[in-house]
Amino acid sequence: MSDMVNHPNHYNSGNIEVIDFIEDQKLGFNLGNTLKYISRNGKKSDNEIEDLEKAKWYLEREIETKKNKPIEIGDRFGSLVVTSLFTTKNKSGTTKQMCNVRCDCGNNRVVVCSNLKSGNTKSCGCQIYKRYYMIGKTFGDLTVIGIVRKNNTNIAKCVCICGKIVYVKPTSLITNHTRSCGCVRKRTKVKYDIGMYKDCYHVWWNMIQRCENKKAISYPNYGGRGISVCEEWHDFENFYKDMGKRPKGKQLDRIDNDGNYCKENCRWVSSKENMRNRNNKVFVTYNGVRQQLTDFKHKNKKFLINHRYDGTLLIEGGKYDNKEWYMKFHGMGELDNE
């Protein structure tokens, strides 16, 4: 016969009695009652909903109690321990309670107390970076050996293959923006920025810059238009192997002006040929003959203005249409045919 006072059946259906688990975990009054009503649900009576509603009531009471309990020095929230408390006031005069906390990883940071209570902040951010960036993972020549806090920002501490310690934004590692401490560029420059490679190396470097460096002057006309450099050509040796030494006076040109930089779409051409292959080509029709402005022998401004689009000269393309071009260089009056 079961002991309904000390060991009722509805609390002993598992391998451990409910009261033993509550005392072992030091759950307290509200959480203890929550667990009690959940464990006996449907076992003591047929009214399952009533037990669940009682469990819900005690659980909500515990949540409300924890929300209203003031944070104290030494309180732990996840990996964070509160070391001091202070208040701040914004321009409107509203005060906000803040905490100085220390993470288990050793980082210190300042957080809003309400974020600790709500569970929105549980670490300094190191747990996120350990999960996504994996300390020990290698990016190019850099291996992440830790996450540190600098200027209120999480920074990856990395060691380069040359042995130098550098601090890099994790996003720069993920996007491949930073692949070394800078030693690769120095080694490449020393190796190729001399002798027979020098001229070709500068062409390669400028190609990379106008396609991938958003601060480059020519970026809007190249990278900004979706023009990219093929993966193989990010290594200068592959570029030099495919294109060879730069012929004297020649420029790097893309056969398809809307295509990318790759072996199949590039060639060495003269500056005049390069001008013919641009998007902003300007054509001149003079005495019934249409040709590019680059090839037009009378392309000086005086000659073009004097012919005033009287039927013998017509300009197509470029920044201005016929009338606007004429008015810009000849004055803002009406277009005439003198």
Task: Give an account of the 3D structure.
With 338 residues, the protein is an alpha+beta fold. Helices cover 33% and strands 21% of the residues. It is built from twelve helices and 13 strands. The chain has helices spanning 18-25, 28-39, 48-68, 113-118, 126-132, 170-174, 183-192, 198-212, 236-243, 271-276, 301-306, 322-330, and strands at residues 76-77, 80-89, 95-103, 108-112, 138-139, 142-150, 153-160, 165-168, 251-254, 266-269, 282-286, 289-292, 313-317. The strands form four sheets. It has a four-stranded antiparallel sheet with strand order 1-2-3-4. Strands 5-6-7-8 form a four-stranded antiparallel sheet. The chain has a three-stranded antiparallel sheet with strand order 12-11-13, with no helix packed on it. The longest helix has 21 residues, at 48-68. The radius of gyration is 37 Å and the shape is elongated.
